[in-house]
Amino acid sequence: MVSLELMRASNARIATSLLSGLVAVFVGATSGIGNTTLKQFASRAQQPRIYFVGRRQDEGERIKAELEKLNPDGEYHFFKQDVSCMKNVDEVCRYIQSRESTINLLYLTCGSLITKKQTAEGLHYPMALMYYARTRFIVNLLPQLKKAQSLRRVVTVGAVGKEGPVIPSDWQANDMGILSFRPHAASMTTLSLLAIAKEESPEFSFIHVYPGFVKTGMSRELTGIVPAITKVLFAPVMALLQIPIDETGERQLYFATSARFPPGLSKDADGISLGEGVHAATGADGTPGGGVYSIDYEGEGTSGNVRGVLDALVKDGTADRLSEHTKEEFRRITGSAAI
Question: Which of 145, 204, 199 is nearest to 327 (CA)?
């Protein structure tokens, strides 16, 4: 476990330890965890160039104004887009690629609790955001991430530690309840990161992180009597366990910038150098400094039980089938596995 104090000390060195002009892309940044992490990054980095994506123009403009006050030396670009559609993801990526040859950080939090809804491209809406869109952003922006000279990192926020059975007959989780959906989606995300790192990009870091109990605003999309009752029932639990949103941003900034999460095959320190007594994290495959990390909000790695689940999904071929399924869906929708 890395203490919050050590995380804050590391974050305080961002301006002096990392190069100026870092390029970051935040997807799902107009509220919740993405928003607080975006602001933390903007306030700490030297002359950052930041692209952030959300669905609401008014919030995007408000946040852009806030960022300009936090750090007037930065450059901020808001892109209004519904990224549940892969063609829209491609549009955003093409825009960024037209302006930037390198990207240092890709930070992904887009998601929804709305289920039983299909996108125009034939994807189950929550999985379109939580899995397909995030994966599409990663594979599209791999060339720019590879070219970065210092920090090179992808962070995706999800239900880490909840990985469990994957049901290949229902990749999109159309017929699943929440008890099946969460472990299914969590495993798909971690397996996808492992596959991309192995096939394409061992030279930079991938982090799948569980943020803990955080009030994100995602539940505001839910309507009806059942969600209303659920919110009331869980209110005491949230009050007891909830992590303040600003603290969450500090933790996420540490994960996005610390050398505790090095690339798998790189000998270069990628991120803020570690403090005394802090060592490289254990990867999702059980390897110290493995390059792909599945961590909780304290920076702790995957448990032995979860590694066993992931290992079994690799050995029985589910991981390979997932990789091929994802590429097939991208080809069906856009005509290519990546732009």
Answer: 199
What's phi and psi for 282, nearest 5 deg?
-85, 135
Percent of the chain with pLDDT over 70: 91
Strand 292-295 and strand 205-209: pairing? parallel
Residues 205, 255, 139: CA angle, nearest 5 degrees: 35
Is pLDDT at 226 greater than 50 in this prediction?
no
Helix (H, G, I), strand (E, B) or coil at 238: helix
Neighbour count for residue 327 (Cβ, 10 Å):
15
CA dist 56 and 9 (Å) reads: 34
For residue 278, the tally of other CB atoms under 10 A from its CB is: 17
Q: Model-level pTM greater than 0.70?
A: yes
180, two tokens = 């099946």
Q: What is the pLDDT of residue 235?
A: 55
DSSP, res 132: I
How many Å from the N-terminal Cα to the C-terminal Cα in the chain?
39
| Tokens 């996808």 -> residue | 192
